[in-house]
Amino acid sequence: MKREIELDRPRVLYRVEEAAELLSLSRDRVYQLIRSNQLRSVQVGKCRRVPARSLDEYVARLLRGSAGRDGAP
Predict the structure, then answer these.
(1) What is the pTM of this model?
(2) Which residue range or ranges hold the Helix-turn-helix domain (predicted)?
(3) Residue 19 contacts residue 50 (beta carbons within 8 Å)
(4) What is the domain extent for residue 18?
(5) Would you say 25 and 34 are in contact if contact means Cβ atoms under 8 Å apart?
(6) Which of 20, 21, 33, 54 is least buried, going by the fewest C-beta atoms within 10 A?
(7) Cβ proximity of 13 and 44 under 8 Å
(8) Does a structural domain hold residue 51?
């Protein structure tokens, strides 16, 4: 049985699988982004984690890169 803990603060780190779900990407694609330095991650012991800030920065870069392509400023 999986137990969820309620915290009073936002999440800071996500597992790769959680980051993939948040970005609507596959787990393999997230690992590709990490290997190509397009998405920053940290090592915690033997575990790879993606900082929430890195997810925000990645999406912001995508938005800047697509500005003007779809008619948006």
Answers:
(1) 0.79
(2) 13-61
(3) yes
(4) 13-61
(5) no
(6) 21
(7) yes
(8) yes
Number of domains in the chain: 1
Q: Is residue 2 part of a domain?
A: no
Residue 19 lies in a domain: yes
Sequence-ordered alpha helix ranges (H) in 1-73: 16-23, 27-35, 52-66
Residue 55 is which amino acid?
L
52, 14 contact by CB (below 8 A): yes
| pLDDT score, position 30 | 98
Phi, psi at residue 72, to the nearest 5°? -85, 150
Q: Please tell me the predicted confidence (pLDDT) of residue 70.
A: 58
What would the pLDDT profile of 22-64 be if each residue is shown by its tens digit? Answer: 999 999 999 999 999 999 999 999 999 999 999 999 999 999 9
